[in-house]
Amino acid sequence: MEMLTIGAFAKASRLSPKALRLYDELELLRPARVDPETGYRYYAPEQLEQARLVAWLRRLGMPLAGIREVCALEPPAAAREIRAFWARTESETATRRDLAAFLVDHLSRTVPRNPGKPGTPGDPSEDTTMLELRYSALSDTGLVRPANQDTAYAGTRVLAVADGFGSGGAPASSAAVEALKFLDDEPLPAGGVLNLLEDAVQGATQAVQEVAGPTNEIGTTLTAMVWTGSQLALVHIGDSRAYLLRGGGLFRITHDHTMVQSMLDEGRLTPEEATAHPQRALLLKALTGGGSAPAPAPDVRLHDALAGDRYLLCSDGLSAVVPEATIRDTLAAASTPTEAAQALVGAANDSGGPDNVSCVVADLVNAESQ
Prior knowledge:
The N and C termini lie far apart (about 80 Å). The strands form 3 sheets. Strands 5, 6, 7, 8, 9, 12 and 13 form a 7-stranded antiparallel sheet that branches. Strands 4-15-14-10-11 form a 5-stranded antiparallel sheet. Strands 1-3-2 form a 3-stranded antiparallel sheet. With about 375 residues, the chain is an alpha+beta fold. The protein has 12 helices and 15 strands. About 5% of the residues have low confidence.
């Protein structure tokens, strides 16, 4: 049988030799023969069609496992699998489109205040609606772990979830949350709440370092929000999450500080591949011991509040096992924050409860209607 060199095969398939070597490493398209002495790759002419199919499927964004499955199918079955994949992709794209619309709306309304001119943003007459926070917090050990290392808290202003890890994970998560509780009673200056929150996080970092000692193998994530009376100030580090349910849509408003998320951001993984990645829980940022190194900076920002908003803070014991569509439906169906938190913890345990699970649910309501 006549073989083609990798250069000739690349030219015939209109793929680069680099791409062919990558497909070989990924076991998507193995050479028909490899010279044992030189390592040169040789391909059979009948592999050209498979090479083009692999390239097309990669351009579609299909994960590696899906490409292997499609390439092993007969053409009619392969066509059905591609059609099903694209339907899922369109559904996910619609969700991202809704998120983009939310962000555009959110950022468009974030404009400088003009306190002196009626009818302009910042006119005091616009801020006549008083909002209040209604909240509930619930933490559960789950069905597999011997102890609960999560901490969940909801107070008059402070909402927080921390997910501890290592031998001292439970006291680490508790120390981080305890360091924020004073904000429940602290006067919050309108223009300096983020500075105040950053100072509080420094206190949380020191508290965790005191608990963890010199090792960075003990620590915690921290996702918290502070209600100012008109906005919610967010602080986030790690892979616990914050979501916003607004107008029937669920929007994730935190970004995971994990290796897998960084690979997603760089385009090295697809969302499907990320869910099965062996290092999906590996954190790039957290509050830990080992005080000699500078503490990683958390994400800190303000979020505008609207009556009817429902916020969820949760540990990855929920987000890693319950699909976001189920989280959205559960949040939307519950009549109170307490009911929502109980239903979400129940959903995590119904999915096997492999980890501790913590939820804080908070509603923004019109105070005059209460």
